[in-house]
Structures are given as C-alpha cells and as structure tokens.
Design a protein that fits this description.
The protein is α/β, with parallel strands linked by helices. 44% of the residues lie in helices and 16% in strands. The protein has a single domain, classed as 3-Layer(aba) Sandwich (Rossmann fold), CATH 3.40.50. It is built from 7 helices and 7 strands. Bound molecules: nicotinamide-adenine-dinucleotide. The site of nicotinamide-adenine-dinucleotide (NAD) has 28 residues, from helix 1 and helix 5.
Length: 243
C-alpha cells in the first residue's frame, strides 16, 4: 500500500499504460480520477472516478482538478500520460496533424502541470510524472512530431522540476521514457506485421517488448514518497534500447 491516502489524477487512463497505472495505483491504496477522452469502459468505485477530459483543452483541466477535489478532497499525484502520434515523413505531414500531436503531447502536459500545482500546494505537496518516450531521447524515422513533442516533455519536466524546487521543493516532477511496450495499440499493429515485431524485438537488447505493468511500476516509484529526493529525472524503461 505504497500510495495509501493519496489522490491521483491519471490522463489517458482508459487504455494501455494509463490503465495499468490506474489499476496499480488503486491496488496500492490510492484514490484515482481516471481521465480520458473516452471513459466508457471505466467503472466508478469508491477508489476510482472516471472523468471525461481532453488534455488539450484548458477549461476541461479546470473542471478535472475541481472534480478531483470534489470527489476526494485533495490532489497528491498527477500522471500526464495521454499521448498520440502522427506517423509519416515530414514533407507529407500536415500542419494540422503536427499541431494535434503538439496539442495533446505537449500542451496537455503543460496544462496539467499548470492546473494541478495549485491544488497540490494546498494538499501540502505532490508528485508529477510525465510519460515521455525513449523517442524523447533518440529519434526514429517517420515520427518527427512525436519525437519533437516527447523531447519537449523531457525538458518541460526538468524546467518544471527546477521551478517547483525553487518554490519550496514540496512538488517533484519527473518523466518516464518507455521503449516499445505491448499496449493494445502497438500489440495489435505488430500482430498484423510479424516482420516488424521481429525487427523491434531484435533492436531491443533484452529481446522482447516491455509490458504495461513494467511501466506502471516505474510510474509508481516516482509517484510515491520513496522517490522523495528524486526530481527532474528521466527514468528510461526500454529494455536497453537507448543504452
Ligand atoms: P494508448 O493509445 O493505449 O492509450 C492512450 C490513451 O490516451 C487512450 O485511452 C486515449 O483515449 C487517450 N487520449 C488520447 N488523446 C487524448 C486527449 N486529447 N485527452 C485525453 N486522453 C486522450 O497509448 P499507450 O501506448 O498506453 O501510451 C500512453 C503514453 O505512453 C503515451 O503518452 C505514449 O506516447 C507513451 N508511450 C507509449 C509507448 C508504447 O510503446 N506503447 C512507448 C513510449 C511512450
């Protein structure tokens, strides 16, 4: 019960890494606002409140933080996990698709930090975990918007961590950088493309994809008080891909 008494808001909580993180947090004693564009599959319980949130919309962030305070009376943890990609070469990428990736992956993290921090300060402190990617450290072809946005998340995390430290150090900010993870989205794509799956596992030094539970465990550590002296860090969970 490493999060007993804590209240968390997780974005992109209806699928993949966000869903695994939400489940792990509840299992560790947290009460969680599970925020997503689509919350149809999420059930309400004493510890879990689904909330419809588009992370790119500032007014919806104001409502989401208010919902957390209404439901549970405090906010201790924010996991900025919602993210999207726009595959394809730069010369074929529309400005609209570029901006959509930036709006969700980068504006969404900025807005989450901006609106969660005052609530965390009133709760005595907190931990913010931003889900970036190993593609925030190294690039790959046909993923320019995604790589640029995740590189932005990595440095936004460090900038926010320094600000929070200068403001008294009660709020920590860290990023998690997953490699290829067996999420529904990636897993389905790779089941239809065994050659790509073989390429990816071949490029990953441990020879397999990661699991959503392995990423959730890294998020849990940074969210918990055990990481009390850890801020501004970038925790890589990629089976050695970027080593
Ligand atoms: P996923 O597609 O399984 O889940 C993403 C969730 O985010 C979905 O439920 C979706 O509805 C939600 N979402 C999308 N846009 C949103 C918005 N505007 N507002 C609120 N919710 C929104 O994805 P995943 O693979 O679990 O990825 C989660 C995070 O991890 C993303 O930031 C992704 O970039 C990152 N990541 C994933 C991998 C991987 O291999 N799967 C690797 C590195 C990083």
């Amino acid at each position: 019960m490493r999060l007993q008494g804590k209240v968390a808001l997780v974005t992109g909580a209806a699928s993949g890494i966000g869903l695994a993180t939400t489940r792990r947090f509840v299992a560790e004693g947290a009460r969680v606002i599970a925020a997503d564009l689509n919350v149809d599959g999420l059930e309400t319980s004493g510890s879990l409140r689904p909330f419809r949130l588009d992370v790119a919309q500032e007014d919806q962030w104001v409502a989401a933080i208010a919902a957390a305070l209404d439901a549970f009376g405090r906010l201790d943890i924010l996991v900025n996990n919602a993210g999207i990609g726009a595959p394809g070469p730069i010369v074929e990428l529309s400005l609209a698709d570029w901006r959509k990736v930036m709006a969700v992956n980068l504006d969404g993290v900025f807005l989450g930090i901006k609106h969660a921090v005052p609530a965390m300060e009133r709760s005595g402190g907190g931990s913010i975990v931003n889900i970036a990617s190993m593609l925030g450290h190294v690039a790959t072809v046909n993923a320019s918007a995604y790589c640029a946005s995740k590189g932005g998340v990595a440095l936004l995390t460090k900038a926010a961590a320094l600000e929070m430290a200068a403001a008294g150090g009660r709020i920590r900010v860290n990023s998690v950088h997953p490699g290829f993870i067996e999420t529904p989205m990636l897993g389905d794509r790779l089941r239809a493309d065994p050659a790509r799956r073989a390429l990816i596992t071949g490029q990953t030094p441990v020879g397999r994809l990661g699991t959503v539970e392995e990423v959730a465990a890294a998020v849990l550590y940074l969210a918990s008080d055990e990481a009390g002296f850890t801020t501004g860090s970038a925790l890589v969970v990629d089976g050695g891909y970027t080593a």
